[in-house]
Fold:
Amino acid sequence: MEKAEEGRYQVIITDPAEISFYEILDYLYDNYPFERAEEIANELRDTAQKLHYHPERGTLEPQLSHRTQSYRYVLYKRTSRAEVKIIYYIDRKLETVYVMDFFPTEKDNTQLSKRNM
Structure:
């Protein structure tokens, strides 16, 4: 693993998060014009990658407080009524942010703790 630049964390999108991301993409391509779906997909991935700098800015996720990791999230606003929670945790020792899920907020929030992360 390469060393992160000073003051920056490496961002890893885990396999479960990648699956969630592609489920969202399927929805986008089925329900939006191609150009808008591409724009949302790029912005969503960029939002996750920007966690490399100040990953602590995310809010602690109360639905996952029972887990051993301290999960946080940042919101990506897809539309005026739909957002995606980018769920992650920080490994300070390895200077790495692990993105664990892309969770559409229109889903039942209580299901978040049951997701495969």
